[in-house]
Amino acid sequence: MSTAPGDMAPRPTLTQVAARAGVSLKTASRALAGESYVSAKTLASVLAAAAELDYRRNTAASLLASGRLADSIGLITGDFTNPFYSALAQAVEDEIRPQGMHLSVANSRESAEQEQRVSHDLADRQVKAVITVSATADHAGYAQLQARGIPVVFVDRRAENVDADSVVFDNREGGRLAARHLIDGGHRRIAFIGDYAWLPTYRQRLAGMGDVLDETDAEWRDLLRTDAHDVASARACTIELLTLADPPTAVVAGNNRILLGVMEAITESPRSSPAVLGFDEPEWARVLGISVVTGDVEALGRRAAQLALARLGDRAREFENVVLPMRLISRTSTSPVRG
Amino acid sequence: MSTAPGDMAPRPTLTQVAARAGVSLKTASRALAGESYVSAKTLASVLAAAAELDYRRNTAASLLASGRLADSIGLITGDFTNPFYSALAQAVEDEIRPQGMHLSVANSRESAEQEQRVSHDLADRQVKAVITVSATADHAGYAQLQARGIPVVFVDRRAENVDADSVVFDNREGGRLAARHLIDGGHRRIAFIGDYAWLPTYRQRLAGMGDVLDETDAEWRDLLRTDAHDVASARACTIELLTLADPPTAVVAGNNRILLGVMEAITESPRSSPAVLGFDEPEWARVLGISVVTGDVEALGRRAAQLALARLGDRAREFENVVLPMRLISRTSTSPVRG
DNA sequence: ATGAAAGCGCTAACAA
DNA sequence: TTGTTAGCGCTTTCAT
Q1: Which segments of chain A belong to CATH 1.10.260.40?
Q2: Mean pLDDT, to the nearest integer, of B210-217?
Q3: Max Cα-Cα span within chain B
Q4: Residue of B nearest to A2 (CA)
């Protein structure tokens, strides 16, 4: 039962299986690969031998010899701790598993350098395609992957400077939905706390809000805050906004992390209580009665996976840029209880 | 810029790098592997050639030839959508990255069969060790991995029927903490909604509550509910409990998913508002002012990674069963606001 | 339907 | 310090 070096039996090889089944190496290979031109009898004996020896094909050797790629697709995200990304990963996996494909997730830690690293890492692992939520503005580097014959699909943030498929949300319309909801709610001092300024998702959401707010007399440009990339800075921003002489009556959180920071700030210092509207939909938003503008993350992931699979089937197909709608989920305060 | 089959240049091989540098295959190999006994001049020319050709070592071939294992550690969890597991994954990665190791996550989908599958999958990918949050009660199957020379570390749920390292929380003490908190709060009708009945974490938390509650006059055995494995069933349980003629004054949620279900139910039907206490600490618990009994997930993951690395260093060391403390985080209601 | 030989890209011995 | 010769375990020609 112990794992001393001694009882670490070397794995049986195909040669051994073949020997045991009394056939040639190649025949054993054929049988286990499920190829045709193998007599039922031979097949049976090879399978039996393999089972007895507890044989498992050495994938590395197999892929090396055949020059094929692994039955897997890679997914690069910035932080698998973010529910948005894990939901995405789940959706991708749900879509590719029925096709016999595996998901290989990689963490770029929102660093361009790491992203480059892990993308090649995935390529080294012989993934058939890569799906990425890129943390960089310029995606030219991904051309290297494509040159290696690996299709790349961009998710949530569309491809820039490289020809590839993308699936994104209609963030601009999302921004409009958010703004209209608050304007309709009578708000005229609206703060927006956004992620990194260079992020396309942020910029588009912002632009959408501008589409609506700039047509009104609402004050909001002064109440704009950016680069609140993590919960802590979002909280700090919120506190700053709430301590303003004339604080906003509504705060829009640019994404789910920011929303958490906003809520933490409001919870801590309940001096003024602005209305809150979030982008993305963390699972707890419903419990807190927070209205959100969100897209279907499940659909986002599935669509990305579909594009990846489709390109594997036909390299020449036109690149697609799929845009998924966002919608407003309007909620009203409820007062949860605790002990 | 397009990815037509034609411009998919075959990757350069070591042979080509060697040729270009004007050295032998092996010399090139040595240079790139950073071995000693390579003259500075040779090293430079090989590196240059490799750079010019954009050479990348074929890992599969490398591992095959050397018989070594990849610099990676596998982590098996039941659902990477669960924040508890993603936090765990993050912690493991944080711990092993400085050692030059990569994390390879695998999803068992809480299925024993899948778990067996992915564990061998990881082994096929030549991971050096496997860390698992097992969804099965009997871990004898993991002996196969150990026989393959791959150390296994059990996290959150300790090893059963197999000799291996484990890191778990002191769930029994956690149960006691939860019970005492509620008793001290004056509660005498306490409901506990738990996960699958066979789960050790659940059983221990339950036992701990029994340690305390059975010494009191509190009613709770009748208010016990199990197998609320997902949010929906936890919500259903809660609704059932709240509609009882004499509903509980406090509800204990057995884990973070259950807690969400409980909160959803309470939010929806605010007829009676019991006190709520959770196990684990979802990020939103603070915002909602929910008291929880939790352990340090970061420490859990790091400790597991340390055990895995330690065993790689010394196969003969004694198996450890690390037990990490749980603590009560007592919170009081606050009333978050929304719009 | 089966087998023999060659080789995928690389590293490990052993020379030189 | 460098090169040569074998393979790692498997799949592919091409025979048979």
Answers
A1: 14-66
A2: 97
A3: 88
A4: B163
* Cα dist from B213 to A61, B14, B179, B198, B258, whole Å: 59, 69, 6, 21, 21
Helix axes A14-21, A25-33, angle to 10 degrees: 100
Burial class (CB in 10 A: 0-12, 13-18, 19+), A217: exposed
B27 touches strand D (CB under 7 A): yes
**B139, B151, B271: which is closest to A334 by C-alpha?**
B271
Between strands B291-295 and B326-329, the pairing is antiparallel
Torsion angles phi and psi, residue A306, rounded to 5: -60, -45
User: Who among B267, B291, B331 is closest to A336 (CB)?
Assistant: B267
Cβ neighbours of residue A117 closer than 8 Å, sequence gap 6 or more: none
Which DSSP symbol is given to A67? -
pLDDT surpassing 80 at residue A271: no
pTM, full prediction: 0.93
**pLDDT attached to residue B148:** 87
Q: What is the largest CA-CA distance in chain A?
A: 88
Distance CA A291, CA A328 (A): 7
What secondary structure letter does DSSP report for A135? S
Closest C-alpha among B215, B225, B213 to residue B189: B213
d(CA B94, nearest CA chain A) in Å: 11
Nucleic acid strand D within 7 Å of A13 CB: yes
pLDDT band at B326 (very low <50, low <70, confident <90, very high): very high
Q: Is the pLDDT of residue A307 over 90?
A: yes
Distances (CA, A) of B32 to A61, B9, B25, B78: 22, 22, 11, 39
The predicted pLDDT at position B337 comes to 38
Residues 6+ positions from B10 with CB-CB distance below 8 Å: none
Return the percent helix, strand and coil in chain A, to nearest 5: 45, 15, 35
Read off the tokens for B214: 């059975």
**Which one of B66, B268, B338 would you mutate to disrupt binding with A, by most A Cβ within 10 Å of its Cβ?**
B338
Long-range contacts of B59-63 (CB under 8 A, 24+ apart): B59/A124, B59/A125, B60/A60, B60/A61, B60/A63, B60/A64, B60/A124, B60/A126, B61/A60, B61/A64, B63/A60, B63/B126
**Cα–Cα distance measured from residue A267 to residue B331, given in angstroms and rounded to the nearest whole number:** 12
Report the percentage of chain A scoring pLDDT > 90.
Answer: 78
DSSP 3-state of B224: strand
Question: In the structure, how far is the CA atom of residue A61 from the C1' atom of nucleotide D16, in angstroms?
Answer: 27
CATH topology for A72-169+296-325 is: Rossmann fold (3.40.50)
Tell me the three-class secondary structure of B2-24, residue by residue.
CCCHHHCCCCCCHHHHHHHHCCC
Residue B168 φ/ψ, nearest 5 degrees: -140, 170
Looking at chain B, which residues constitute the CATH 3.40.50.2300 domain(s)?
A: 72-169+296-325, 171-295+328-334
C2 C1' to B124 CA distance, Å: 29
Q: What is the pLDDT of residue B8?
A: 63
- Tell me which fold the domain B171-295+328-334 belongs to: Rossmann fold (3.40.50)
* Beta carbons of B74 and B308 less than 8 angstroms apart: no
CATH topology of domain A14-66: 434 Repressor (Amino-terminal Domain) (1.10.260)
